Amino acid sequence: MSISGHCQPPSSSLPPVRSLRSATEDQITSALHNLQALYCPLRLPVTLTRGKQSAPATAHADSGYVSEDEEVTDEGVSDTEEALAALRADEFERTLAVGWLTTLIARADELPFASEDSQSRIIDEAASILASFSDFADHEADEALTRDFSFPVSAALGEEKPIQARLNDAPLSGTDHTDVGLQSWGASIILSGLLCIAPGRFGLHRLPKDASIIELGAGTGLVSLTLGQLMPRLSLTQPSILATDYHPAVLENLRANITTNFGCQPDSSAPVKTMLLDWSAPPASLHSTASMLVAADVVYAPEHAAWLRDCAADLLAPDGVFWLVVTVRKDGKFEGIPGTAEAAFADGKCPKRGDGHVLRIVEKEMLEKRRGVGRGDESGYMLFKIMWE
């Protein structure tokens, strides 16, 4: 039985170990992709591909286990999400998957792959999924990490007290896991620091008093929490700040961080609210409302940049601005990601409004990596300013 037509339990989707030699390469590849979607998804939902170009078969996309006709609770948790979470935690299914992957790797030389490249690719994929189980076990054993951030503010604000934030960060368990949003990444730290030290650079003084600020892929919420403390210091009426993400676990942690920093629940008097947001289906209530959009380190594949672009076009007000920070990694599978963001806004691909205005990148700037900030594979951050022209 499949969950929402996507992920299937290993017990019903894996070719039997005893008949691996007779399994086709396509069958093995399909089984691996099912395991990737089940145990190693990114936080971006595969529902984003509805009506758009589908992700390549090798993309680490989420399982898409929320369907359009599905019941979702007030906390943003659907019945199938609960079923998928239960499947991921099922010890029998996990043990079966581990045994199958181990056997596949051990017998790879005996299997009829089309080429050595195919064999190498399949072994790499199997090993990556297998490693995720160890990461998951380590993650369960580790305790959450409390991190304190302090950002100096612009002297123009007339006070020296820095903006401070305390966040709960879960230990990283791998770049392909759904819990990636539980970690504060380097891009969000760099962007938060810049907002505090140079608010004029981002036009914060010029935002209308009833401004709406929306963060896409907020994760731990560092950028939104920073803005929630910074904006009142600019002598502006507190704008509406909405921190959005897709996965319920990330949103739960985000709400806890809001409570920690503001002493109240995000659904009450806190300056930062939260919302579950699927980039493929922004709610009508947010259409063309955002005076400012922000997003930091949410692009990991060309498809993500395109989905983000279309979502931004739906949310951004005619005179709004979208600040996007993309992490630069010079090695590994995420090399060249900033280029995918630029390609998404190439001529002919940019969304266009009825009045002829086109959503474009109007400025870009390379931000240096700071010592002690971000992961070792990060070499810098590309800041994009995106507006209707």
TrEMBL record:
<dbReference type="InterPro" id="IPR019410">
    <property type="entry name" value="Methyltransf_16"/>
</dbReference>
<dbReference type="InterPro" id="IPR029063">
    <property type="entry name" value="SAM-dependent_MTases_sf"/>
</dbReference>
<protein>
    <recommendedName>
        <fullName>S-adenosyl-L-methionine-dependent methyltransferase</fullName>
    </recommendedName>
</protein>
<feature type="compositionally biased region" description="Acidic residues">
    <location>
        <begin position="67"/>
        <end position="79"/>
    </location>
</feature>
<dbReference type="Pfam" id="PF10294">
    <property type="entry name" value="Methyltransf_16"/>
</dbReference>
<feature type="region of interest" description="Disordered">
    <location>
        <begin position="55"/>
        <end position="79"/>
    </location>
</feature>
<dbReference type="GO" id="GO:0008757">
    <property type="term" value="F:S-adenosylmethionine-dependent methyltransferase activity"/>
</dbReference>
